[in-house]
Structures are given as C-alpha cells and as structure tokens.
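PROTEIN DESIGN WORKSHEET
SECTION A - STRUCTURE
LENGTH: 369
TOKENS:
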C-alpha cells in the first residue's frame, strides 16, 4: 500500500486544542454538564451573527432535531438535492416524512431552484438546501420559492462554516440551520454539531429535546416531551472553542489553496470545478474537479489511482441519493446532472494544514498525467 503523503481532509490540531481539552479534563467536567458547552454555543452564535445556537451530538442528529422542531412528520414531503452526503436525507425518514430528491445545477453543483419548483406538491413542507463542499446555494431563489409556497427552509450548512452569500454567513438564512464538527469538517470536536436559529422559541424547545425532554436545570426527573440524548459534551466543547478561535486561519488557508488550484489547473483541457454564484464566497471545504471525459485523458478511477500511486489522497464526489441502494424502491427521478458529476468528479486534498507546496505538488501530478 502506498503511504498517504498528502491527505484529502484531516483535522488540524495543535497546542491550543491540547491546552483547552486538558483544562476541561482537569476540571472534571467531561460530560454534557459543564460551562464550556454554553460558551461554545455563545461564541458560535456570535461568529455567525445569529441569536441562538444549540450544541448537538452530530450534524445528523441536528437535522433530525430541526425537522422535529418544525413539526415535520408522516404525510409531509421534504425537498432535498440529489448530490449530497446521505445524512441530509436520512433524517427526513427518521422524522417519518418523505424525502423528494431533485437534481442539482451543473455550475454550482447545488440544488436547482427550477427543479425544486417542479417538485412542489400540496404535501411539501420544507426545502433542505445543502451548500455542497462549502459553496453557497442559490439562497435568493430558494427563499423566494419558500415564501411563494409557504415552506420552511432548513439549511444543511454542515460543510459551509465561514461561507458567505451576499455578505451574510451561510447558515443564517433558514428558519433553522445545522453545522457539523465531524473530524473531516472545517472545524472539529471529534464528532459534534450545532443547530442555529433566530427564533428563541425554537431554540428553547431544542434545548428541551436534546436533553431527553427535560428542562435544563430541572431537578425532579420530569420529562415534558419524549426527547433525545443529543447533547454535546464539555470535553468536545473545549475542542470546539479552540478550533473556533483558529477558524479564520483555516478559512484563509483553504481559500488560498483553492486559488492555487484554479490558477494552476485552468490551462488543462477537460477540467472544471464548482462555480460560486455572484455574491457567494465558498469556504472551499473540499476543492473538487470534474473531468470532461471527451477532453481529459484519464477517467475518474484511473486518475484517483494515479494520484494514489504518488501518495495523494483523492475521492469521488458523493454518489447521488437517487442511485443509493438504501433508497431503492423510492422511485426517485434519475437526476442526470448529479449522476454525471459523481461519474466524473473528484475531491482533491484540501486539509487546512497542507502547505502551498503540497497543493502545487498535487497540481503537478495532475498535469503530469
Ligand atoms: C457531514 C455532513 C452531515 C452530517 O454531519 P455529521 O456530523 O457527520 O452527522 C450532513 N450533511 C452533509 C452534507 C454533510 O457533509
């Protein structure tokens, strides 16, 4: 096996993280009790410029919780993009509702507003746009449709911390938005997530539901609702606080690396990448390319293997939801754009501790094919 010299996505952890986690450990507060969870929530909300943030055990749980908070359940339909990680879609099923999968736009790779409008029925309750690989979705069009048809917007911002759309941060557009702090995301708490909203009533109920339906601070083991154990721990929050402090550094690096990729690869025929909409700025979580099979000499598996043989980790874009065996029988439409992107698309090394030389080395190997 070839050793990985340049990894795709890997946590960027240093002395600050060690320091904060060690202090949390020494304080004895390792579980969800402890002051750092609230501090992390408050700093996260302040960073986004939104009033409410509730920490959760991971992004998937956050999306499930959000659907519950919006009262979405059996008989309801929720529109999701075909090109995304499966965790955008599964929570819709957990909530008892039906996911309706629509195709993406070939330039942004994000949910196509025209396809959304065609899929709306009298059962539609919500749209879940995903800012894929950090690239902001067409929020003006999506919010316009939501207003026109009376739908909720639940932003899957799990990949989009630090991305902006027309001067506002991704994750501040929907009734509720969800972030992920999984090990491979922009910042990590090991595993974790954050549900954010501008609505204090939704946040209050979220705090109840993450805590087994029990009011925070309640002492008699009284459970108002059938809730979940979806809390983040103090130990994880310590890691999150350190990572949040370093977020500006991570974002600057990712954007610099994306600029290098674009500069170096633009001369190569048959290669393209995600386009940002006017006014949108991606965090470039994972810089990704698509091969035009007619023009580029290699196909996807050959190119991934070529990179791997030189110690460079690359990966295909997500397999479309419409092609997933677990959703066989759901009669999702074929979603040709998502299928084509998966067929020919590759994520390239984007870890924030990589150097400019690493990125140049990846470009050189691509050019050498
Ligand atoms: C990572 C991710 C999630 C889920 O987050 P977890 O913290 O891993 O549960 C959901 N949607 C998308 C698009 C993601 O990339």
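SECTION B - SEQUENCE
RESIDUE ASSIGNMENT:
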């Amino acid at each position: 096996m070839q050793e990985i010299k340049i990894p795709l996505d890997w946590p960027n952890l240093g002395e600050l993280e060690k320091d904060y986690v060690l202090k949390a450990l020494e304080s004895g507060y390792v579980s969800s009790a402890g002051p750092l969870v609230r501090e992390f929530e408050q700093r996260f909300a302040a960073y986004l410029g939104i009033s409410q943030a509730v920490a959760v055990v991971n992004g998937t749980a956050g999306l499930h919780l959000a659907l519950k908070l919006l009262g979405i359940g059996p008989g309801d339909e929720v529109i999701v993009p075909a090109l995304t990680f499966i965790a955008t879609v599964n929570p819709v099923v957990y909530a008892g509702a039906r996911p309706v999968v629509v195709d993406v736009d070939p330039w942004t790779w994000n949910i196509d507003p025209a396809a959304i409008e065609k899929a709306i029925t009298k059962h539609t309750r919500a749209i879940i746009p995903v800012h894929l690989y950090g690239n902001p979705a067409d929020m003006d069009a999506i919010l316009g449709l939501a207003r026109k048809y009376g739908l909720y917007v639940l932003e899957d911002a799990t990949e989009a911390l630090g991305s902006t759309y027309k001067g506002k941060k991704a994750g501040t557009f929907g009734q509720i938005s969800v972030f992920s702090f999984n090990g491979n995301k922009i910042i990590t708490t090991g595993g974790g997530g954050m549900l954010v909203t501008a609505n204090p009533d939704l946040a209050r109920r979220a705090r109840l539901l993450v805590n087994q339906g029990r009011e925070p601070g309640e002492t008699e083991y009284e459970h108002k609702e059938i809730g979940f154990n979806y809390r983040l721990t103090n130990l994880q929050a310590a890691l999150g606080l350190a990572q949040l402090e370093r977020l500006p550094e991570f974002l600057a690096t990712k954007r610099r690396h994306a600029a290098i990729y674009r500069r170096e690869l633009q001369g190569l025929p048959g290669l393209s990448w995600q386009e940002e909409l006017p006014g949108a700025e991606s965090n470039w979580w994972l810089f990704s390319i698509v091969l035009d099979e007619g023009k580029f000499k290699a196909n996807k598996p050959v190119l991934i293997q070529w990179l791997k043989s030189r110690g460079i980790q690359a990966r295909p874009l997500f397999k479309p939801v419409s092609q997933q065996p677990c959703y066989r029988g759901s009669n999702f439409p074929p979603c040709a754009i998502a299928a084509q992107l998966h067929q020919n698309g590759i994520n390239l090394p984007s870890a924030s501790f990589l150097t400019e030389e690493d990125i140049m080395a990846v470009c050189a190997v691509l050019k050498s094919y």
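SECTION C - NOTES
Residues 58-60, 84-85, 87-88, 130, 156, 158-159, 180, 182, 193 surround pyridoxal-5'-phosphate (CB under 6 Å).
The longest strand covers residues 52-56.
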